[in-house]
């Protein structure tokens, strides 16, 4: 393999790799703003310019492919002066309002200003200002904070494949706008906030809700469709605040669709049913767990139930349900449900060029692999339904006179059931799911179960033991500590 | 004083028609001769001529042509840079106005040399009359078979289109020009790849200035060696059109052998000296982007290398002469304003720095300057110089550095005592 030297370190590299990426492999971080590995290299911000032996001018590391024997200095006097001068240029018109900026704490401009900026301001002229603008329902634009890296323009053109953001005017007056000021069209608009290196494009959904440094992060997997995009859940105490994509070059690269990004909202939704409910006469009443489980068992006593399993459940949950069903309802049929029109993995397909899949549940493949067939209607003689749902699977029409629901349900859905035992969502449990291409990935619990919800495994253990007082969940205890 | 000229005697209205070109300028004979030559031999002849680009950078033309790959999957293009956007430059306008067929012939020959069948003349939007005249000449050339299919009875074909710019300095930068030609924002591209590898519409492309292409028929007709000998210096052949403006008695276009006379001779012997016989204050020698020269620095041969040695540039040979008594601070303010206005805004140092320099100079002129502003100007200019995506940053920084350094006392006079 060819070798080059960066800051005195000899580094082997794959031919064709640019200096930013080569340096990264040796733990040397060259600062940059406009560069993004997913997009065309434009060398506009000039932050990454470095000194290369034998070249009279500084060269931008993003646009310079390493060559064998190249000697590079990222911290020579000239390189450093350029880093600090670019910082100065970027900051002369950038409001120094980090304390009220939503990007604060995860802003490249802020971070690099600590490394390369000056604590003295030489600019004494009047700063250019723009009025904040809406870019549709997802993104708010603050042009004053923009550093003209054009990542958003290139994201639209090259990744989302909708050239919806453009630069207008010229030079110092350049402004980033949507075409004809129309709302953003892409289903991936949230990514604009991810790639913006400053607080110029922020998520309306998240802005001003919480300082990022107060949030805890849990790496997990999106349950929005069968792609299984890797995500990070950002949470504090009992509440989820946002989802961001986590890079996985095999699955979602850097991206996440808006549906997946904002899916988490149902977890803390006020209509979510988080206490056990039981029908008493014509009314549906809340009940303590022990009574509710006993009631649920009683509802199905002596019945021939159909057992429905959501394809939004984890493998572990489905296996527990299978084991439970064999004992509690021998011979009862199991079937899965999830996305209308996507009965099996054969019906599942890409619905755009990037990530989104037809199956709106994450574990269709996994559930199918566990031997469960799609729900196509109840067999003759079925007189009850026991349904398990993770939170996203679309409820089918329920058969029979006796109905018990276990899992995540909302609002009026309580009225559908004779007994409803609230379970946990993807964000409150740990388990594995299998994406459309067969990759097995792990969900990881972040917040503790909301309200009085319990893990399905715990509910079934309780049920199997005849509805005795439930022992406190270990996971819950752990979360409470 | 009289030396051979190849263009300027034809800069008259009556020289424009094809009949004159054919009759008095050996019109289209070079094309016939070139088409009988192997393409590589045409390029070799241009190399031999030591023709260097007349747009500003002075790159050897033959060498530029030789960078075009022989085999290409995409069509190759000959693009004429007729944007002539460098302030102080007005030579290409006359070439297009009076000798449009010379340009057309040069472009067809270039097409043959590099294996291209498509040419574009990217002309600045303000040149409405010239665009129309060029179009008329092109129509005439199609009519007579100098453009189109089967040129000169060979199977070579070449199509030529006039494309009008919309009025941006940056579209004179070759890759900004190509983006504009493609219908995109006129913003320079990252190089490499150079246009010779991936230019217009991704195909191998040569971008040559009008005057450069106009030299080609002469070179083919009379030989590269003849052209090379017109120049005084070894690596720079031909004659050059000098655009003299400002405080001289006889401003205008002058055609002189490359390196034939000094800047001083041009100003005093050819242009009749300074208006009102005032002392000379300064000369901007190569379009407004060239670092300024003081009166003491003008004894330089008028060619690319001697100007580089003097730490300025001959550029597009737009020579602006400034007499004593003229406010040079106001002049550099205007120049800087121009570059700040014309900056495309892509890259940080140019977008932010040009405007910053303009603001500081404006403040000094308004009597609100501080002594430290001069060093600030020099530092900001240094932070732009050589660190931008294209040469516009250098074009803005070079003048500021040279004006502040060479005319520092003019700035200091405007700064209040003790500020």
Count helical runs of chain B: 17
Write the H/E string of chain B, N to C.
HHHHEHHEHEHEHHEEHEEHEHHHHH
Low-confidence stretches of chain B: none
Using DSSP, what is the number of strands of chain B? Answer: 9
This entry's quaternary arrangement is: heterodimer
Structural class, from helix and strand content of chain A?
A: alpha/beta
Q: Please state how the strands of the largest beta sheet of chain A are arranged side by side.
A: 15-14-21-20-19-16-17-18
Helix content of chain B: 40-55%
Q: What this model shows, in words?
A:
The complex is a heterodimer of chains A (481) and B (419). Chain A has 481 residues and is an alpha/beta fold. Chain A is 21% helix and 20% strand. Chain A has helices at 19-25, 77-92, 108-116, 151-159, 190-195, 258-262, 289-300, 315-328, 364-369, 456-464, 474-480, and strands at residues 3-6, 9-12, 49-52, 59-60, 71-73, 133-134, 139-141, 165-168, 175-178, 201-203, 216-221, 230-236, 239-245, 277-280, 283-286, 305-310, 334-337, 373-374, 384-389, 402-407, 419-422, 431-434, 440-443. In chain A, the strands form six sheets. Chain A has an eight-stranded mixed sheet with strand order 15-14-21-20-19-16-17-18. A five-stranded mixed sheet of chain A has the order 2-1-5-3-4, with helices on both faces. Chain A is elongated and about 85 Å long. With 419 residues, chain B is α/β, with parallel strands linked by helices. Chain B contains 17 helices and nine strands. In chain B, strands 6-5-9-7-8 form a five-stranded mixed sheet, with no helix packed on it. In chain B, strands 3-2-1-4 form a four-stranded parallel sheet, with helices on both faces. In chain B, helix 7 (128-143) links the parallel strand 2 (118-123) and strand 3 (159-164). In chain B, helix 2 (29-35) runs parallel beside helix 6, helix 6 packs across helix 9 and helix 13 runs antiparallel to helix 16. The mean pLDDT of chain B is 96. At the A-B interface, helix 2 of A face helix 13 and helix 14 of B.
């Amino acid at each position: 393999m060819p070798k080059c030297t960066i800051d005195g370190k000899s580094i082997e590299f794959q031919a064709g790799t640019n200096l930013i990426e080569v340096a990264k492999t040796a733990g040397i971080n060259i600062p940059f703003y406009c560069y993004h590995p997913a997009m065309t290299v434009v060398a506009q911000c000039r932050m990454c310019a470095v000194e290369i032996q034998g070249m009279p001018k500084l060269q931008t590391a993003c646009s310079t492919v390493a060559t064998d024997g190249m000697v590079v200095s990222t911290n020579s006097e000239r390189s450093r002066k350029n880093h600090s001068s670019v910082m100065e240029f970027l900051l002369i018109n950038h409001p120094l309002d980090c304390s009220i900026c939503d990007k604060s704490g995860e802003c490249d401009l802020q971070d690099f200003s600590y490394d390369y900026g000056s604590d003295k301001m030489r600019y004494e002229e009047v700063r250019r200002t723009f009025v904040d603008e809406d870019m549709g329902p997802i993104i708010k634009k603050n042009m004053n904070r923009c550093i003209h890296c054009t990542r958003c323009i290139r994201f639209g053109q090259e990744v989302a494949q909708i050239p919806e953001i453009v630069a207008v005017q010229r030079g110092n007056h350049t402004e980033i706008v949507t075409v004809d000021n129309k709302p953003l069209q892409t289903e991936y608009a949230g990514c604009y906030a991810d790639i913006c290196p400053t607080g110029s494009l922020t998520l309306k959904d998240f802005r001003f809700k919480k300082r990022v440094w107060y949030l805890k992060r849990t790496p997990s997997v999106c349950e929005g469709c069968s792609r299984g995009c890797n995500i990070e859940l950002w949470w504090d105490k009992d509440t989820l605040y946002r989802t961001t994509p986590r890079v996985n070059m095999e699955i979602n690269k850097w991206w996440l669709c808006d549906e997946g990004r904002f899916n988490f909202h149902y977890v803390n939704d006020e209509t979510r049913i988080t206490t056990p409910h039981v029908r008493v006469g014509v009314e549906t009443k809340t009940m303590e767990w022990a009574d509710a489980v006993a009631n649920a068992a009683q509802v199905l006593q002596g019945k021939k139930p159909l057992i429905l399993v959501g394809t939004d459940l984890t493998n572990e949950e489905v296996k527990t349900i299978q084991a439970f069903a064999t004992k509690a309802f021998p011979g009862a049929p199991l079937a899965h449900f999830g996305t209308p029109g996507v009965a099996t993995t054969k019906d599942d397909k890409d619905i755009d060029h990037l990530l989104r899949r037809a199956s709106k549940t994450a574990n269709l493949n996994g559930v199918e692999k566990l031997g469960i067939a799609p729900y196509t209607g109840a067999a003759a003689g079925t007189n009850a339904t026991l349904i398990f749902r993770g939170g996203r699977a679309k409820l089918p029409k329920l058969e029979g006179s006796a109905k018990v629901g276990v899992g995540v349900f909302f609002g009026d859905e309580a009225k559908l059931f004779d007994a409803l035992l609230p379970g946990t969502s993807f964000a409150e449990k740990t388990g594995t799911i299998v994406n459309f291409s067969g990759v097995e990935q792990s969900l990881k619990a972040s917040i503790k179960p909301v309200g009085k919800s319990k893990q399905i495994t715990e509910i079934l253990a309780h049920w199997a033991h005849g509805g005795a007082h439930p022992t406190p969940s270990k996971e819950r205890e752990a979360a409470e500590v | 004083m009289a030396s051979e000229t190849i263009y300027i005697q034809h800069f008259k209205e009556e020289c424009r028609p094809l009949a004159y070109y054919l009759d008095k300028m050996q019109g289209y004979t070079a094309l016939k001769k070139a088409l009988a030559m192997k393409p590589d031999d045409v390029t070799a002849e241009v190399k031999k001529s030591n023709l260097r680009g007349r747009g500003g950078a002075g790159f050897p033309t033959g060498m530029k042509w030789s960078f075009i790959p022989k085999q290409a999957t995409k069509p190759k293009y000959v693009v004429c840079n007729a944007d002539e956007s460098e302030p102080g430059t007005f030579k290409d306008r006359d070439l297009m106005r009076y000798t449009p067929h010379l340009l057309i012939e040069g472009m067809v020959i270039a097409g043959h040399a590099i294996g291209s069948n498509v040419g574009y003349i990217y002309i600045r939007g303000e040149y409405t009359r010239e665009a129309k005249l060029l179009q008329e000449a092109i129509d005439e050339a199609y009519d007579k078979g100098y453009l189109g299919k089967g040129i000169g009875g060979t199977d070579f074909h070449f199509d030529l289109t006039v494309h009008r710019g919309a009025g941006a300095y940056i579209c004179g930068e070759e890759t900004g020009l190509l983006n504009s030609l493609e219908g995109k924002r006129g913003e320079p591209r990252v190089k490499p790849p150079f246009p010779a590898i991936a230019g217009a519409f991704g195909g191998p492309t040569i971008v040559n200035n009008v005057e450069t292409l106009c030299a080609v028929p002469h070179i083919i007709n009379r030989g590269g060696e003849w052209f090379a000998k017109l120049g005084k210096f070894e690596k720079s052949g031909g004659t050059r059109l000098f655009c003299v403006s400002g405080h001289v008695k006889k401003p205008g276009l002058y055609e002189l052998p490359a390196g034939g006379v000094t800047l001083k001779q041009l100003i005093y012997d050819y242009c009749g000296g300074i208006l009102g016989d005032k002392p000379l204050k300064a000369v901007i020698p190569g379009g407004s982007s060239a670092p300024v020269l003081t009166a003491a620095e003008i004894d330089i041969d008028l060619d690319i290398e001697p100007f580089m040695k003097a730490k300025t540039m001959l550029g597009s040979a737009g020579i602006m002469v400034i007499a004593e008594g003229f406010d040079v601070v106001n002049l550099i303010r205007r120049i800087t304003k121009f570059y700040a206005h014309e900056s495309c805004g892509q890259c940080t140092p140019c977008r932010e720095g040009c405007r910053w320099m303009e603001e500081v100079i404006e403040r000094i002129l308004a009597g609100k300057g501080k002594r430290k502003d001069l060093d600030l100007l020099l530092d900001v200019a240094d932070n732009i110089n050589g660190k931008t995506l294209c040469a516009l940053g250098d074009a803005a920084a070079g003048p500021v550095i040279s004006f502040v350094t060479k005319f520092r006392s003019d700035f200091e006079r405007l700064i209040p005592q003790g500020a």
